[in-house]
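Fold this complex.
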Amino acid sequence: MCNHTNKNIYLPYLATVEEIVDETPDVRTLRLVFNDEQLKENFSFRAGQFAEYSAFGAGESTFCIASSPTRKGYIECCFRSVGRVTEELRRLEVGDSIGIRGPYGNSFPIEQFYGKNLVFVAGGIALPPLRTLIWNCLDLRDKFGDITIVYGARTESDLVYKRELQEWQERGDVRLVKTVDPGGNGPEWDGQVGFVPTILEEAAPSAENTIALVCGPPIMIKFTLPVLEKLGFSDEQVYTTLENRMKCGLGKCGRCNVGNVYVCKDGPVFTAKQVKAMPMEF
Amino acid sequence: MQKHITQQNFNNLLDTLIKQGQRVVAPRMNAGTLLYEPLTDSKEMITDQLPKRSGKETFFPLCEDIMSYEKEGQKITLTDIDPTRFPETVLVGVRPCDAAAIPVLDAVFSWDYKDEFYLTRRKKTTVIGLACTKADDACFCTAVGLSPADSKGSDLFLTPVEGGGYVCETHSEKGEQLINSNKELFTEANGSKALPLAQPQTETFDLKKVKAWLDEHFEDPAWDSIATRCVGCGACAFVCPACHCFDIVDEGTEKSGKRRKNWDACGFWKFTHHASGHNPRDGQPKRYRNRIMHKFKYYDDKFGQTLCTGCGRCIRLCPVGIDIAQIVEDINKK
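Structure:
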């Protein structure tokens, strides 16, 4: 859906912060509700798409839409406070206004995953871009085979969506493998200890009729792809989402390209095959 | 359609348009710098030099407001800026290198999402191109397939002729309309000989060959030697008629302010710098490589043209003497 009713493609919609959840000491989730009643009902997007979020006076930041398209009436974003805009977004309180442009970019071809097993592999703050798809799939649970989620972070406190990890762990229809880096575990930790690629290899999900969805820091991706290959996944069976600094999100401003691929328009969702064809510029 | 117009009548045409309330933009001296700027009188127009910056800012200004915001407690009011309010404009005396860049920019701002800030100005502007009779040693339009008499991007194209005045050739309905609405100022083309055109002293690049090399050499030791000295000042992008990268920033206070679209440059380190500290182009050679790649490969991959019109401004202005024509010529010889 196009985010403008008039001719100005840069004009955001206004939304209100409905709920704030602190995921970690510096990562926060905002639940946002569009001020316009009609938009609130009709805003539609697909898992994997992103938006531009405004903190007026500071500017815009690019994040994925972290909630599932199956959950109507609101959207969620999840961000770490690291810069001018995210610091300002962090200062927002319930009831404050935010600007949203989007949804932009391509999305996960979820219909092509029907009837298949899914393996989600995420590290740290990179769970939100997969969490939208995880809930999308869980809300359509009958359409998929086995669902495995391998999620890790440096320490227990760096894990985001802790309440949902609990929920996934307790559901009978998801296999959750959670892990923290060695030394990141406290006395009560009930998950694995080790880096995501190692834990993924141990968990050894079958590649047969399976799609792997990977998102994490570049170093995690680098070591995860060979593990998937070892497990028998072809590059067409593996999907990831890229991020780059963006401004317009519309294929104009010229900064998010990796070679001749524009992350904002051609992505952010790519197969491992597509990523491997790109020059090393991300 | 081909007509003749005297210099005096051409000036009369511009003065008439100015009186009618049209914005007439032409090369004009501003505090010692020749720029494409709105005229108040045709006498201000200077046509014997290439302006310091290109004509692109007629459509795509250096800074432009795209909305404003006002905060009162938890309430925020956004004020839209209607891009359709821009005035009718005639852009006059545009050099072929600047005019040829306009269709190049059109492709960027009109594919998929429509940037009406650019497109409305574009729609409302008639471009009058002017053939070049002088070239300096930085000019290289002929190397990238254009010429001092190329009418690409012009609605009406003027060629100076012996005995004074210009031969005017129309290249669009807008150009014809301009002549038809001011018929009395034009006469039938009388066969006067065109003044000798400029002759840029460059070899013609085989752009297909250059692109084929770029296709295969994202990683190449040449990039370090080409761009180690680049200081990342961004001047090349700011004077380029075809560069179009921009930033979106809020300027104002927490209470109120404007959101603006400002020119940006891929030579700046911050251009691709992530908030996390990671920078995919973490050195000047990588950033300069993107400049060359974008101009001679990426843009071509997407839109089937080259993103360089050979105006030579980046060569004249570069503080460390980087010569894009030389770089491409070297690639051409590989």
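The first helix of chain A runs from residue 37 to 42.
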